[in-house]
Specification:
mainly alpha, Rossmann fold, two-stranded parallel ribbon, 2 strands
């Protein structure tokens, strides 16, 4: 947790320093189904199910349909004025931790 907060803090400093050069710096915090999560699900299904139930949207994100489009948005011209932000792509889970 401390390392993640350090990255978020450094990204804000970088956004402040590089913004005048039109360089945007944002952080994406995904909570998505990955190979390691699938392994964990097989190893400890009860804990996995309890964790997923705690996500307000009732599921983990999908890398292709949930995370990818948000990252593409941040990389696009439509996000030209978005910098120093943290995008929580976690189905609302961070709001309840």
């Amino acid at each position: 947790a401390a390392a993640k907060e350090a990255i978020r803090g450094m990204s804000k400093v970088a956004a402040l320093e590089w913004g005048r050069h039109n360089i945007r710096v944002n952080v994406v915090c995904p909570y998505a189904e990955t190979e390691s999560i699938r392994t964990w699900r097989e190893w400890d299904p009860k804990t996995y199910e309890r964790t997923v139930r705690a996500v307000p949207m009732g599921r983990l994100g999908d890398v292709t349909t949930d995370i990818g489009p948000a990252v593409c948005f941040l990389l696009s011209d439509e996000a030209a004025f978005v910098t120093a932000q943290t995008m929580m792509l976690d189905g609302g889970a961070a709001g309840f931790r």
